[in-house]
Structure to design on (488 residues):
């Protein structure tokens, strides 16, 4: 009897069926899913670097110009950072004003409409945009283009910076775009958890802001944006950073010519303050009936970017939760299968920042997941990191740093950071040396100091049926999905 050939459909069915049978017969997977073979070539030599220095000069209007030349590709990128223009300084009753102002600058100038600008930029394969984060100190205006189109791109960027018209119809469309998202985000457990977490860690400090509200967006007017732009998009303390196929002399001539009418204002950049010292850690549960997952967050107030503990803190966190080789990822995802990802991070800025570990788990494994998370934090606090793990973490940090040096923009960003925080000129040259010098004792001391269980805020968002799980960690505070305390 002749055998009929299989069609693609019957072949696919056969393959799936066979795979299913094999899966039924196969032994269950081991919980030890990650095996670090340690066979990659490793050098014990400390990386020696000397970064190329940017050229620097002050412009007549007070702006400072930094240029890092790289003529390997015919491209130029630039950013103008203006301290005082970020959302950190938003009026308390108009959160989102700085972000709206920056966004609307690109939507029309005295000579071009938004559509005309977009068309011209697309033709040149260039970009121009402005931004101001909700907790950022600075507002920025950025541009990128091929070298041959740099002058035209800069001219457009200067037009956006100096002559935005803030059209009423564009403001209306901006509000229509953004307001539905402000409502919709409240359905996200990660947003609800972050909202409460920021409030617990930062109090009323501007760093506690996670989002504007529909009410604050409604209060934004064209006049408010015009006034904000005039007061904060000024050159007095601005930093113009440029990388790519251009010299310092050419950049200076180009920016002075394009920004001849950008004059000093003698205004203040605004004061930056520390958040209030956080009180004892708390245990909080935000109820979302019917949720199939529990969002877990454990964090605390930490350090600023200039704190002497910064390098040791970063090494400690690399071992604990930074990346797929961190203990949190390895244990909670690979070994236990509670989650798709678990991580921790230090957020250190000009003010005292925070450290946060977070993950999402299935509702039915909420209790073992939070217990294992807290156990890993306790292990970091109570045990010296084994030498091999410690050395691997430091090598990974230095290797990541070295890879970033391939990008001129990344190298220049290092010098912008050094200028922002007033680090020594050789700060980044010595980065590998500093990281390599961090000791196990220092990492342990940092963990003991900042991951003290009395300082940790535990926040969970999920189905109320698992709320009682968290009573074992302290007095439980309940909140509804609007972030309001539930009074029993």
């Amino acid at each position: 009897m002749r055998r009929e050939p299989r069609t693609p459909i019957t072949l696919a069915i056969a393959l799936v069926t066979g795979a299913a049978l094999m899966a039924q017969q196969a032994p269950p997977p081991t919980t030890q899913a990650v095996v670090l073979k340690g066979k990659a070539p490793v050098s014990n030599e400390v990386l020696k670097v000397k970064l190329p220095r940017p050229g620097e000069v002050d412009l007549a209007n007070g702006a400072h110009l930094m240029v890092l030349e790289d003529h390997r590709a015919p491209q130029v990128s630039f950013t103008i950072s203006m301290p005082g223009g970020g959302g950190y300084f938003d009026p308390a009753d108009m959160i989102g004003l700085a972000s709206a102002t920056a966004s609307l600058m690109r939507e029309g100038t005295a000579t071009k409409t938004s559509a005309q600008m977009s068309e011209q930029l697309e033709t040149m394969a260039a970009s121009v945009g402005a931004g101001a984060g909700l907790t950022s100190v600075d507002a920025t205006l950025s541009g990128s283009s091929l070298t041959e189109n740099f002058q035209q791109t800069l001219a457009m960027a200067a037009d956006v910076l100096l002559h935005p018209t803030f059209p009423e119809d564009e403001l209306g469309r901006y509000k229509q775009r953004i307001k539905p998202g402000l409502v919709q985000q409240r359905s996200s457990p990660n947003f609800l958890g972050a909202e409460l977490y920021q409030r617990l860690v930062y109090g009323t400090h501007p760093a506690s802001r996670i989002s504007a509200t529909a009410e604050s967006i409604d209060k934004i007017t064209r006049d408010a944006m015009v006034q904000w732009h005039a007061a904060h998009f000024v050159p007095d303390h601005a930093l113009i950073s440029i990388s790519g196929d251009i010299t310092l002399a050419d950049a200076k001539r180009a920016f002075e010519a394009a920004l001849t009418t950008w004059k000093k204002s003698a205004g203040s950049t605004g004061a930056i303050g520390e958040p209030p010292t956080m009180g004892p850690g708390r245990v909080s549960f935000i109820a979302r009936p019917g949720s199939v997952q529990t969002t877990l967050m454990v964090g605390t107030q930490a350090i600023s970017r200039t704190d002497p503990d910064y390098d040791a803190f970063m090494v400690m966190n690399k071992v604990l939760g930074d990346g797929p080789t961190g203990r949190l990822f390895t244990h909670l995802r690979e070994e236990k299968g509670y989650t798709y990802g678990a991580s921790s991070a230090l957020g250190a800025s000009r003010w005292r920042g925070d450290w946060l570990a977070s993950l999402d788990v299935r509702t039915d494994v909420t209790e073992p997941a939070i217990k294992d998370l807290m156990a890993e934090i306790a292990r970091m606090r109570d045990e010296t990191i084994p030498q091999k793990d410690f050395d691997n973490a430091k090598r990974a940090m230095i290797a990541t740093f070295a890879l970033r040096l391939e990008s001129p923009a990344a190298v220049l960003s290092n010098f912008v950071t050094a200028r922002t925080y007033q680090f020594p000129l050789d700060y980044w040259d010595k980065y590998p040396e500093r990281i390599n010098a961090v000791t196990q004792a220092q990492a342990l001391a940092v963990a003991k100091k900042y991951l003290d269980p009395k300082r940790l805020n535990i926040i969970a968002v999920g189905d109320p049926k698992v709320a009682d799980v968290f009573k074992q960690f302290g007095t439980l505070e309940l909140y509804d999905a609007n972030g309001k305390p539930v009074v029993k």
In short: The two ends are 78 Å apart (CA to CA).
